[in-house]
Amino acid sequence: MASCHFICNQNLFYPSNNTFRKSHLPYFRPHGSSSTHSKLHFKRTPVVKAANKKIEIVYDTDERINKLADEVDKEAPLSRLTLFSPCKVNVFLRITRKREDGYHDLASLFHVISLGDVIKFSLSPSNKDRLSTNVPGVPLDERNLIIKALNLYRKKTGSKSYFWIHLDKKVPTGAGLGGGSSNAATALWAANQFNGCSATEKELQEWSSEIGSDIPFFFSHGAAYCTGRGEVVEDLSPPVSLDIPMVLIKPQEACSTAEVYKRFRLDQTSKVDPLTLLEKISTNGISQDVCINDLEPPAFEVLPSLKQLKQRVITAGRGQYDAVFMSGSGSTIVGIGSPDPPQFVYDEDDYRDVFLSEANFITREPNEWYKQPASANVSCQPSEVSGTFQ
C-alpha cells in the first residue's frame, strides 16, 4: 500500500475531511504491553487544499508510516501499562552455611517459567497507591510487596507518581515459586517506565534486595546462578532447553518458610558442590540426581503429605518425568519432562483440590520485560487460590 501527504509552502496540510486519521489515542509502549493500541490509517484518494505555490506530493511507504506512528507513540505520555509477572523454579537448591545475621547462604539455579500473574498499572491523581486483586486474603496495604516496591522506587528516585494497580493472580501463594517477589520486581519495572526509565536495570536490581532476597533474580534475563541470600545474581545463558515441558502440582496446604528453616539442619544437607550440579545440567540436561533441594527434608517434616505426593508422582510417572522435585521451600512439586500430571491426581478425592499447571522455561530480551505466553493451562480458578501473599 502507498499513501501520500501534501506539502505546501513547506507546511503539512490536511484535507478538510481528514483522510489522515487515528483509530485510538496513542500511548507510549515502552517495554511490556500497554493496555491501549494505536495505528495510523490512510486513504489512498488525495484531496488537496488550495495553495498559491507549487504543491509537492510525497509518497510514503508502509515502513515510513509505521516509523512515524512509533515516533508519535514515544512522545505521548504513558498512563496505563499491563505487564506479565512470571514465577520461577529452583532447579536445584543448596544451603551452604548459616550466617552471623541468622540468615542462610544458598547456591541455586533459578529459572523463570511461563506460569505468572498479570498486573495492570494506571496513574492515580491521588497521593496514594490503590491495589485490588482477584484473590481473597491478599493484603492490599504496605504489607504487600507491590506497594513496598513502589514506595522503594519513590524513595530512591524522588518520583511523585502513584498508581491504581490490579493484580490478576494465577500463581498460588506459599508455593515456593517466588510469585510475590516477581510481583515486586514487575512493580519496580513499571514505575521506572512511568518515570521515563530514569533508573538502570542494575539499579533496580540492587535496590530490590532491600525488600526481598529473591526479587533481584527477576532482573536477570530469566536464568541465573544465585548465591548469598539469593540476591547475588549471575546471569546465565539458558543451561536447559526452553522447550522442556513441566507440570506443577501444589496441594492446598502451604509450607511456612519460617517453619521450614526452623527444622533445617545444616549437617544433614547434601555435600555436592553446586557448581558441579550446574555443570552437569549445562552438559547433560536435567535429571533426578541433579535436582537436589536441601529444604525438602525439613519441608517434609512440616508437611508429611508433601513427601508422599512427591513419592507417588515418581512412582506413578513410571519414567514419564526426567526429574521430580520440590521448588524453593515448598509446597509445589515439579515434574520435568511432561506437562501431564499422573492419573491418581484426577482419580483420588485427596487430590481433588490441588493446583495444577503445565509450564515451560522462559527468558526475556534485554531492555524488555517478560512476555506473557500465548496460552497456558492452569486447572484451578483464581478464587481457589488461597494463603498468605508473600
TrEMBL record:
Gene3D superfamilies: 3.30.230.10, GHMP kinase, C-terminal domain (3.30.70.890). It comes from the Eukaryota. Pathway: Isoprenoid biosynthesis; isopentenyl diphosphate biosynthesis via DXP pathway; isopentenyl diphosphate from 1-deoxy-D-xylulose 5-phosphate: step 3/6. Keywords: ATP-binding, Chloroplast, Isoprene biosynthesis, Kinase, Nucleotide-binding, Plastid, Transferase, Transit peptide. Its EC number is 2.7.1.148. GO terms for biological process: terpenoid biosynthetic process. Residues 144-220 form the GHMP kinase N-terminal domain. Belongs to the GHMP kinase family. IspE subfamily. This is 4-(cytidine 5'-diphospho)-2-C-methyl-D-erythritol kinase. It comes from Bixa orellana (Lipstick tree).
